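User: I've been trying to design a sequence by hand for this structure and keep getting stuck. Would you show me what you'd pick, starting by listing the structure so we're on the same page?

Assistant: Good idea, let's start from the same input. This is the structure you sent:
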């Protein structure tokens, strides 16, 4: 009896016409039973006691895809720190992530 082989499909990445790239220094997160919602934006401080978050993109992920993304991000941060040194977070900044609601 032959063992079935598991052939990985060839994956092609193609940018859609509405593809865009942007810079974000703020990510807010909301979670529900069905999905996790990431809101990307830029934070700017106009006064010592005022910060404005300009949200420019929202992305819904399934819980499974969010966990896979978290794992990939962790792997990439470890590799980055191995190459360039430890990343230090400012205590007051909280890493730029929002409260899970």
């Amino acid at each position: 009896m032959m063992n079935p082989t598991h052939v990985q499909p060839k994956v092609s990445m193609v940018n859609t016409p509405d593809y865009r790239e942007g810079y974000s220094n703020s990510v807010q997160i909301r979670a529900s039973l069905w999905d996790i919602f990431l809101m990307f934006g830029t934070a700017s401080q106009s006064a010592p006691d005022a910060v404005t978050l300009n949200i420019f993109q929202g992305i819904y992920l399934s819980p499974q895809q969010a966990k896979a993304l978290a794992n990939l991000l962790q792997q990439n941060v470890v590799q980055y720190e191995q190459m360039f040194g430890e990343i230090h977070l400012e205590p007051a900044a909280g890493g730029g992530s929002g409260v899970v609601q």
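That's my pick for every position. To get oriented when you compare it with your attempt: Residues 26-85 form one domain. Residues 23 and 42 are 8 Å apart (CA to CA).
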